[in-house]
Amino acid sequence: MNVDLGPDQRDAAAGARDFYRGSAPPAAAREALEGGAVAPGGKALADIGFLGMTVPEAAGGAGGSLLDLAVVAEQGGAVLAGPSLVTAARAAVLLADAPDLAAQLADGSAAFAVVDGPVTGSSPSIDAAGATLFLGLDDGALVVGEGEATPGRPLDATRGLASVRLTSRRVLAEDAGQLWARARQAAAVVLAAEDLGAADAAVQMAVGYAQQREAFGRRIGSYQAVKHMLVDAWVGVDQLRSLVWWAAWAADAAPDELPLAASAAEALAAEVLERAAETCIQVHGGIGFTWEHDAHLYWRRAKVDRLLLGDAAEHLDAVARLAVAGALG
What we know:
alpha+beta, Butyryl-CoA Dehydrogenase, subunit A, domain 3, two-stranded antiparallel ribbon, 8 strands, 54% helix, FAD, AcylCoA_DH/oxidase_NM_dom_sf, oxidoreductase, Acyl-CoA dehydrogenase
């Protein structure tokens, strides 16, 4: 296994960083909370090719790997961009045998969401608020259709959470349980990658402030307690990056390792992002608790993402069961 990124992936990450910073500043997440549209939006992501990155070339996509998508998703997470590439990753797996629909995913002509829970009234599902077509699991069959989405009051509006009731359905595959599980694992990897980017950005924001802010005649970054908080948060980010890269690599190169790797990455991502966001707020002190500062936006993302695609307890349980069953040997 090559534990580092290749030149093409580093170039993709650099390009994605420039794109996201130019089209989706973190302040856009605040505007979304106030009723504005999420940025950069589905059309922009389709036009630049991100939505179709793992869609086969025959269906109009780039035919890339999940690792290619993960390094791009990390940059989107850093600026709290929406819609999420989690949906693109999950839908691409589910639509592998439906090239007509996969093409609509890639070119953005349809806005997809994958609903969790009963299709007659799902759990809050990511990107459902702005979707036009919904994928769901109905009595073991993979279905697609239109639906009614009911958003709640968002804690993080960029996630587009809504409960969905399908109003029409077309069966794409019978007995799709294994396909559904594999798509969820791919989605967990990309969600962890987005959380990695958000956690890294929160730590960098905190470090930058600690290097400038002075208290009692010294920069606060020189105080040992502040240093320890920042180092602990940074170490978590570094550990998470290794797990995300392993899980994304495994999706294509070692699929037997994906269930374990995806759950491990997602479980750690929830903890790392929450710690990074809380550290960022604490280092900023009073200003970090205010509506005007961006720190709380990362905290909101952390609180929402802890519950998407299963919580940390569910994923840690999966890791333990897989390890006992010999997945590491």
